[in-house]
Amino acid sequence: MHFDNYNTEGMFDEMIRPNGQCHGLCIPLQEALEHLSHKKLSQLQHSTDKAQRSIGMTFNVYHDNKGIEKILPLDLIPRIISGQEWEVINDGLSQRVKALNLFLQDIYNDRKILTDGVVPSELVLSSQDYLGPCVGVTPPNNIWCHISGSDIVRDNDGKFYVLEDNLRCPSGVSYMLENREIIKNLYSSLFASMSVRPIQDYTNRLRNMLAGLSNKTDPVIAVLTPGIYNSAYFEHSYLAQQMGVELVTGQDLYIENKKVYMRTTRGPQQLDVIYRRIDATFLDPLVFNKGSLLGVPGLFEAYVSGNVAIANAPGTGVADDKAVYAYVPRIIKYYLDEDPIIDNVPTYICSEKKDLAYVLEHISELVIKETNAAGGYGMLIGPKSTKKEQKRFYEKVKSNPRNYIAQPTLSLSTVPTFTKSSLSPRHVDLRPYILYGDQIDVVPGALTRVALKKGSLVVNSSQGGGSKDTWVLFD
Question: According to DSSP H, which parts of 2-55 are helical?
Answer without folding.
Answer: 27-34, 38-54
